[in-house]
Amino acid sequence: MAKRQRVLVVLSQNELDSQPEPALDRGVFIARETNAMLELFISEYHPSFYTPLLGKTLHNEWKPETYIRFALSRLQEISETLASREQLRVSSDAAWNRHQYDGIMQKVSSIKPDLMIKTIHHDSRLNRTLFNYTDWHLIRTCPCPLMLAKDENTWTTRAIVACVDPSHIHGREEGLDNLIIEIAQWLAYRLRGELHIFHAIEFMPEPMFRLWQPGASYNNYKQEAREEHETLLNELLRPYGIGSRRIHIVESKPADALLSFAKKMNASLVVMGAVSKGTLENLFIGNTAEKVLDALSCDILIVKPNPIEVRETVAEPVFG
């Protein structure tokens, strides 16, 4: 896999208010270990700037360009601190856009980062991840690998789990599993972690099998299906030199199995794919990922098989 050269970290107002975000921590960590350039970015919008409720004086003083100047100043302070303390190449930028997602995608289209990192928050009491509108848009349409950094994850183990499914027809056609493995293997090497390959086999329920093949042996079906999966997985992994100790095949529902496995391994990062059926609107994250994104407490890296054309949007003018 090619060397990562540019990491885009999407920040929020919290970071500007000196409340450190996991995304910045991960970005610094990855940039330091891979000698990548780090770009800090914030896309904001406050509708109160366009209402008279703030009062005439305050409304005149606090215009969008005022906020952008403030954001750029704070980002510059953070960048200079990181450049000095971590010896990193750091740049920063800020945008004013009615929809945060549009501002981020315009930035992605402009600089074409090799990796984007954004913070998402996991509520341990509810065992739920709190995704907002922007998060879901980025998960489905961000053209570059997207790392979702969770606030409870500390990367203590540096165990990286790559989820593959060589039996998935769309993934095979688009080379998605290969891309997942290459990215995960590269990260494990550069971050001094340990890569684990995960694959789940979900057999047809026995009652359904009995209707489909009356009189046939259900155990034979399971054995043959497992052998077929093992053959496909071995063919997929042959070029990568991954030892059998780090290859895990689990017979269970993929979502449940992945959650249990990630917890057992105390994973720091789970790498999984999104599959395209030909158009942007038909891109979906997959049943497994839809179910586990909420429940995983570790960071998640979403990978797509081919670059997706970034939707053109008209930026809302900041000045003038």
From TrEMBL:
Major subcellular site: cytoplasm
Compartments (UniProt record): Cytoplasm
Ranges of residues in domain UspA: 5-149, 181-304
Record keywords: Cytoplasm
Pfam families: Usp
An example Gene Ontology CC term for this record: cytoplasm
Keyword hit for Cytoplasm: yes
PANTHER family: UNIVERSAL STRESS PROTEIN E (PTHR47892)
Purpose of the protein: Required for resistance to DNA-damaging agents.
Similarity annotation: Belongs to the universal stress protein A family.
The protein's name in its UniProt record: Universal stress protein
